[in-house]
Design brief:
ECF_transporter_component; transmembrane; ABC/ECF_trnsptr_transmembrane; 253 residues; 10 helices; single chain; mainly alpha; Cobalt ECF transporter T component CbiQ
């Protein structure tokens, strides 16, 4: 985990949110999502306040609204599922614009949309202000099992290696005049997938042998020791604590 590794969700910046240690941001995002999920669905105003809190964080992190909204498209499948709930759920029904909708289905759809959108937005903000390498260091600092951190680290880096190999194979096919236009070309694509698997497997073995020859014995050396001051923890946990106050009011009111 010594080399830097940028990803598409990350937005380079020098904001106060970018400067926070990664494990404080991971803990804040996790606690915020837990609070949001614990909020009663009937307290609609609470979810609006959560959205405002995330908007303040995005403003503080200098993350544009368009950047955030574009990344929220990842939840489209969940939106489609939520839209179907009022039509398929059972129980008391109401008529809206000539359509018969289930009351429990409407509440369920609202619950999924509100909590899912806020959770995805919090995750996007975390990814936009924290590099992958820092996320891994943060997980390590939070005492996640070392083996899981290593698996995540290798998966991220090896995923880029395989993607680059796929790109080179595609360029090689196109330089020879190949263009997939139908079922009759599936055989060529299947052979390419097989070749990619073999190359990836062989490269994995070579990487493992290289690591063993350099003294790898099941654990990665800690290159950067990430620490956080009390003030940094206070700044990071301001979001989940504010959300917790809103959640408690949502249960009381």
């Amino acid at each position: 985990m010594g080399a830097g590794h940028a990803h598409r969700l990350y937005r380079h910046g020098h904001s106060p949110v970018h400067a926070l240690p990664p494990h404080t941001k991971l803990a804040a995002a996790f606690l915020f999502v837990v609070v949001v999920v614990s909020t009663p669905r009937e307290a609609m105003w609470a979810f609006a306040v959560y959205a405002v809190l995330l908007g303040c964080v995005a403003h503080r992190a200098r993350v544009p609204g368009g950047f955030l909204l574009k990344r929220l498209l990842i939840e489209v499948p969940f939106v489609a599922f939520a839209v179907l709930m009022p039509f398929v759920a059972e129980g008391e029904r109401v008529h809206v614009l000539g359509m018969s909708l289930s009351v429990s289905g409407l509440w369920g759809a609202w619950n999924v949309l509100a909590k899912g959108t806020l959770g995805v937005a919090a995750s996007v903000l975390l990814a936009a202000t924290t590099e992958l390498r820092e996320l891994l260091l943060g997980l390590q600092r939070l005492k996640l099992p070392p083996l899981l951190v290593q698996i995540a680290s290798f998966m991220i880096r090896y995923g880029d290696v395989i993607t680059d190999e796929m790109r080179r194979m595609r360029i090689a096919r196109e330089s020879r005049g190949f263009e997939a236009r139908g079922v009759r070309h599936w055989g060529v694509l299947a052979k390419s997938a097989g070749a990619l698997f073999i190359r990836s497997y062989e490269r994995g073995e070579r990487v493992h042998l290289a690591m063993v020859s350099r003294g790898y014995a099941g654990s990665m050396p800690v290159i950067d020791e990430v620490t956080a001051s009390r003030a940094q923890w206070s700044h990071a946990l301001a979001l989940p604590f504010a959300a917790l106050a809103v959640c408690l009011l949502g249960w009381v009111l």
